[in-house]
Design brief:
- With 129 residues, this protein is mainly β.
- 8% of the residues lie in helices and 41% in strands.
- It contains 1 helix and 8 strands, in the order E-E-E-E-E-H-E-E-E.
- Strands 1-5-2-6-7 form a 5-stranded antiparallel sheet. It has a 3-stranded antiparallel sheet with strand order 4-3-8, with no helix packed on it.
- Strand 6 and strand 7 form a beta hairpin.
Amino acid sequence: MSKEKKRHSVFVYGTLRKGCHNHHFLKDAEFGFDATATNGWKLLHLGGFPGMVPGDIVDEVEGEVYYVDDATLEKLDRLEGTPTLYKRETIQVYIDDCGDAWVDAYVFQPSRPISEYKVIEDGIWPAKA
């Protein structure tokens, strides 16, 4: 009897995105689609990586959704320092180029309140200088 692997949707917006230095953690993951966290999310520049935090209703963050298995999700938890540095929560993200379609996905966001960092106005990582 074969056991079906569980698939998790994960919204990545920073160093895990295509072309960024931690993307190799998703080498076994299935790319889903480009997506946007809308309805009040903003991106902060935390140094060499970003943090997605609640913002004003007009703020949004661009990213990608991947489908990962339990083992990959555990690796991502370790990478993100869950739950100490980042917490994993479920949010709704908008599927780009797909009409009015939304999906629930995990997202990693800073565990502690942070406000002293620079906002990335366009909501896209890597941030432009």
